Each structure stands twice: as structure tokens, then as C-alpha cells.
């Protein structure tokens, strides 16, 4: 027996992309794998998979000691570090797990017993799951091969279209045309999901679709978000953790990309479409646009997104001109 532990990333999207690979490990390995999970995502991970998990508590010295002891007592042979921070490798070294595998970033090579080739380090020309597969020492599975998972379905909002207009990263990932899209989706109810900071966006969407919008921004847990998405017709989302959650559970999703790259972090599954606009400066991977025009997002038209949603979900087409979007 060679039990192993996998440290998952802190960002929701990265965590879900990594989890999709862990769940496709050979059964002989998967059955002996434990997840080390950021506490804010523990409930969601428990809903999405059946693997045992330890919460990666570290906000105080007492919590760090408790987490350290939990890992030490697990009898693990291998520690796979998906994050590339120095602190995660330092923690892994302190656990005494004999095999510690990860990227040799942030001067942490000396803390790893099995560093991964640097060819995978922050290579934005390939999907990030290639990097994760190398860390996990497993065959690569393209993101489009992911088939989704079943979750406990929501009891309301079935058949609605879900909008996710937020992006914690910054305005260079926020598409500005959700209100206009809501007007084009005139035959459907809309649920807006996100953080409380996205409430203004939800109000703008509701203003264009009176009586058809339910604003749940800041009012749902990640488990509740998954339940709502599972019964939705489809999801329209900025490049965010919620986009990746829709892809993970297999709900049709359109991912809107501005400063980031769909080649690097596109969503999972065959029922996903990515949309971006080929500006010369994109992708810049910046939080804000140094030219202040945000054309990489603004030039993705709501008509093009509505047409893509119709193609993806079989929605009845609205009376709007379809425009090409590359």
C-alpha cells in the first residue's frame, strides 16, 4: 500500500481543474488518495467526490499544528503539491512524508524529493491541467474529455439560465454586456450568482429584464451554487471559479475570456464554449487594462453570446443579428 495526499489549490477554478484529474487516477491509486483541501471549499469537495479529505487549516499556530499532525498520522508515502508556493512545500517537508512532488518554483526545489520538469512551469501555451497531470505523475486527460458529475439537484430555478457576472481577479475579466444579454433572453428566467460584490451587476441585469431575474449574489454557498447550476438550462460566466464549477458538474457553459487565455484555463467538458475577441494585446493576464478600453471583452457582442447559447443548449433564437466572434 502506498497512500498519498494531494494538496489542492486555493482558487476555486484551479481546484476543480486539479480535482478532475485526481478523480481520473487509476483506481489502484485513487482508492488510496486523500485530499488536503482549503477549508472554504471542503463542503463543495465533499459534494463533488467521495475521497477522504483533511482541511488545510493554517490561520493560527494551533491550526497549523493540528493540520500537520493530521497529515503525519495519515501514514502517507507521497505528497503531491498542486500549488507552487514556498509555504506549501515547507509544510510538506515538515510532515515527513518521504516523497514530495511538485514544481520547483519560488526557490523551493530543495524541499522537494521529486521535482517536476520546469517545462510545465507556468506554460500558458498549454492547458494548465497538463501541469497538474505532471505533478500527479499520471497520464494527461484533455479537459474536453471530462463527463461531469452528479450533484444533489436544486429544488428551484429549474430551466433558468444562470449568469455569473463577477470575477474576483479584476475588471479585465468582467464582460460588460450581461444586461443586454438578459434582454435577448426574453423567454427565460435568469438567476444571477456570485459574491455580494456582484450585486450591482445583478441589479443592472434585473433592470433590463424586470420580473425575470432572481438575484442570489452573496446569498448562496458553493454547494447551493452547484445545486442551482445542475438544473439550469445553461450558464454564461466570466472566466471565474463559477465557470469551472459549471463545467465540472457538466452543465452547458459559455466562458467569456478577456485578459486571460482559454488555451490555458478553459472550462471542462464537451458542453462548454469559450468566447474571446482577438485583440493584439490579449491575453495580457492583467487585472486591469493598461489601455483603458477593455476591447477584448467589450467586443464580444451579446448577440454572439445569445447565438452560442442557442447552439449549445437548443434555446429558441431571439430576433437579433448574429455576429461573428472569434
Automatic annotation (TrEMBL):
Family statement: Belongs to the glycosyltransferase 9 family.
Source taxonomy: Bacteria, Pseudomonadati, Chlorobiota, Chlorobiia, Chlorobiales
Classification via SUPFAM superfamilies: UDP-Glycosyltransferase/glycogen phosphorylase
E.C. number: 2.4.99.24
Keyword ATP-binding on entry: no
Broad enzyme group: transferase
Reaction equation(s) it catalyzes: an L-alpha-D-Hep-(1->5)-[alpha-Kdo-(2->4)]-alpha-Kdo-(2->6)-lipid A + ADP-L-glycero-beta-D-manno-heptose = an L-alpha-D-Hep-(1->3)-L-alpha-D-Hep-(1->5)-[alpha-Kdo-(2->4)]-alpha-Kdo-(2->6)-lipid A + ADP + H(+)
UniProt entry keywords in alphabetical sequence: Glycosyltransferase, Transferase
GO biological process: lipopolysaccharide core region biosynthetic process
Domain of life: Bacteria
GO CC annotation terms, alphabetical: cytosol
Name of the protein this chain belongs to: lipopolysaccharide heptosyltransferase II
InterPro entries per record: Glyco_trans_9, LPS_LOS_Heptosyltrfase, RfaF
Gene Ontology MF: a single term: ADP-heptose-lipopolysaccharide heptosyltransferase activity
One Pfam family hit: Glyco_transf_9
